[in-house]
User: What shape does this take?
Amino acid sequence: MKGLGLDGPVLIVAGRAAKSLLSEVWRTSLDEAGYAYSVHDFGGECSHTEIGRIVGAAREGKAATIVGAGGGKVLDAARAAAADLNLPVVNCPTVASSDAPCSALSVIYTDEGVFQEYRFYRKNPELVLVDSQVVAHAPPRLLAAGMGDALATWFEAKTCVAGHVRNLRGGASTRSALALAQLCYQTLIEDGPEAMRAVSLQAVTPALERIIEANTLLSGLGFESSGLAAAHAVHNGLTAAPATIRFFHGEKVAFGVIVQLVLEGAPQAQFAEVFRFSSSVGLPITLEQIGCAQMPREMLQRVAARTTAPGETIHNEPFEVTPALVADAILAADAAGRAWRKLTA
Ligand SMILES: [Zn+2]
Assistant: This one.
C-alpha cells in the first residue's frame, strides 16, 4: 500500500465473514508492513447512521486510510465514510456478487434496509484487492448473482452507445469501455459454467479468476463508463414486488436482461445464448425463479410503473417506453423462459 501513497493508521470496516476469514492475514501482513490498524465491525446496513459511526471510528483512530472488507454494503459504507473525511479507500470484496467494488458510487439505504438514494463520488477507489481464495469459499449462488449483474453490462452498454446516451458520470462513452463490456460478456459465456464448478469445490481455477475479473472489474468499468438501460430499470421495478426481496440484485438483473431483449426485438439466437448461459450457472430466466410464480395484473402494473419512473435508465432505450410496453415485455420474457425450460427439461 505504501507504494500507492496509502498511509496508516488504517481503519478496516469489516463484515462478519470477512473478519473471521481474514483477521489473521491482517494481523501478520499489516504488522509486517508497519501499519497500525483497528477494525470496525460493520453494523449490517449502508445507512447514514452506520456511515456516521465509521466516520467517528476513523476520527478516533486518526485513520489515514479506510479499508472496506466484505460484501457490497460494507464497501459502499466504507467508501462513503472515506469520502466524508476525504481519505483514500481500499476495497477488498470477499464475494464477486456485483460490480460495485470498482465504482465511484454507493447505494444508501435506511436503517431498515429500504433503498434511499445513490451517492456519487469524485473518484474511484484507490485500490481494489480481491483474494480469489476467499471468493472461492463464498456460497456459489453469490458468484452466479455477480454473473447476472455482469450479464447486463454488454447489452446495456451497447444500447447506450447506439443511442449516444451520456454515461453515469455525465460523459460520453469510449470505444475502450464498450470493448471491455463485450469482453465481460464473452468471458461469462466461455468461463461461467466452469467457474461455478470450481466454487462448488471451493477451488481456485483460471476460469474462476477470469470470472472474478469479469464480475468485478470489466462489469464495473463497463456500466460506469457506458451506462445502464432497461435491464437495471426492470430490476428496480421488480423490487416493488415483495416476493423478489429474497433474491439477489444480480438475479433480478439477469431476468431484466431478457426483458430488455424482448423490448429491443433481439434475434432468437441471442435469446438462446442467454437462456443457455443463465440456466447453466443457475440464474433465473422466468418469473417463478424470482419468487413470482403468480404475478397478478395489479402487481405487474406496479412493477412496470416503477420500472418506467422518471429518471430511470430504461429511458436510455432508443424508443418511447411506457408501463404497458414493459408489462407486456415482462410477460413475454417469462413465457420465453418457460418455453426454453420446457424444451430443455
Ligand atoms: Zn447492477
Summary: The chain has a mean pLDDT of 94. The CA atoms of residues 16 and 172 lie 39 Å apart.
